[in-house]
Amino acid sequence: MLKLVANFKTSEGRSQTWSFDNPTTTKSSTEIEDLLDRLSNVKLFEKDGALLFNTVDGANYVETTETEIFKKKA
Fold it and tell me: Out of the domains of life, which is the source (predicted)?
């Protein structure tokens, strides 16, 4: 499975992570950064008085491989 994992800083300077499953990979890094900046500008997400996605810090594509070890029959 492929995920877009974005790292943000809260208004208190702490790290905050957000991920999106199965992203389109055709956008450039500049387009992705612009979209994540727009998300940080909305200022919708707050916890204990701190804005959770205050500034975008970076983003990565993360791919995980799932390997079945066993599966019990019903």
Answer: Bacteria
Per-position b or e across 11-36, b if 16+ CB within 10 A of its CB: eeeeebebeeeeeeeeeeeeebeeeb
Q: In terms of C-beta distances under 8 Å and separation of at least 24 residues, what long-range contacts does 25-31 make, across chains too?
A: 25/61
DSSP class of residue 48 equals T
Confidence of residue 74 (pLDDT cuts 50, 70, 90): confident
Q: Any bridge partners for residue 4, and if so which?
A: 20, 61
Question: What are the domain boundaries of the chain?
Answer: 2-63
Q: pTM for this structure?
A: 0.82
Residues 39-61 pLDDT 10s: 999 998 999 999 999 999 999 99
Structure-block tokens of residue 58: 């970076």
